[in-house]
Description:
The protein is α/β, with parallel strands linked by helices and 422 residues long. It has 2 domains: 4-190 and 328-405, Response regulator (Rossmann fold, 3-Layer(aba) Sandwich); 192-320, 3-Layer(aba) Sandwich (Rossmann fold). Helix content is 33%, strand content 17%. The strands form 2 sheets. An 8-stranded mixed beta sheet has the order 1-3-2-4-5-6-13-12, sandwiched between helices. The protein has a 7-stranded mixed beta sheet with strand order 8-7-9-10-11-14-15, with helices on both faces. It is globular and about 70 Å long.
Amino acid sequence: MISAVNLLQLLNGNRLQILYFRSINGFLMSLRPKNLVLLTVLLFLFAQKNYAQLNSVSSLKIAVLAPLYIDSAFNKDNAYKLGNINIPKYFLQGLDFYNGIMMAVDSLEKEKAGIEVWVYDTKKSFQTSEMLIHEMQKENFALIIASFTNIVEQKAVADFAFNSNIPLVSATYPNDAFISANPFFVMINSTLKTHINGLYNYVQRNYPVGKVLFITKKGAVEEKIQTEFDSAAKKTYPLKYQTLQFSDNFNAYSLLPFMDSTKQNIIICGSLNENFGLNLVKILSAAPSYRSVAVGMPTWDGIKELSGEECKNVEIVFSTPYNFSNSDKTVISLAAAYKSKFNGRASDMVFKGFESMYRFSKLLMTHQANFINNISDNSFKIFNDFNFQPVILHPSSYIPDYIENKKIYYIKKLDGQIKSIN
């Protein structure tokens, strides 16, 4: 395999006929060599202005924001400085999201779509949110697609989008903090409140008979989860359950005395802490004399250990706004294309990047100024059924505080395998 240094020299040697270079964090990209693990980081500094027929004079401009950490990969002389073997983990989510975006752009290019894509690195060194907004103000964007990592950058870009009448699609970040009175803000990754209400209703519908325990621990987030779960009962007929608070490293002797060997036990984990949830599942798996179901938070979607040997003897249920089924033909095709191009396995961030770029670009081209009112149009569905609904936090408000995807999938796993998706 070609080394990072050699690849950089190849690029600097103009072997790709680079026509356009932009030293700030906004840029266009097109040509990429195939089958190179390290190509993604290296190519962040290079761009080709022509996107075939994508960026005509009348094309629609789309801004993509992602945590790319470009300045951490190169020094001031544009020399790659991370070595030739592994890319640090903190790069991976942003890179995978970007790769998914660019694979969607390849598909749009083949369709001769009338768009122009600009990518901004939200983790550029010494860059403030104000500096990022200043750069974005130089272009006339019709849509912003973002993978945020914190509420500060999200709030700054959301305010810019509102003041500029630009729809902003938050593709991965589930936090709605500080967002209000902004009907231009669209959230794909549903909020914790939506998940909790959904899980409450799921348990209520699917486990009407049994002993229900709500397991929690000390913490501000845990208090919020419990409050939301308790308040969910006020919206429908109440679910009878017992709340238990344990230490971080509780054991079977703490939990099992509260369970019933003659009934099905529905154990709800009221914490986002992955270790706490994993410990709960392991305890239930090691107690086969109790019929039990472990109901978890959306963070369980990313816990690989839940498919391990220590978690196989218990039914597991958790919620997610995304359903990337391994049996889906588009998932299989995109994963194969990713492996061919990057010699690696496509993560969920690749699929999220691809879906958000392709789906919302097509909706923008179809509806243009009426994009927001048609955000739930499923004509260009890729993987997921989205159900975008306006959220009004205060009854006296006249406009939505934001628009949120209310569609939640419920994944049921047993013995490490997915048994059903509702």
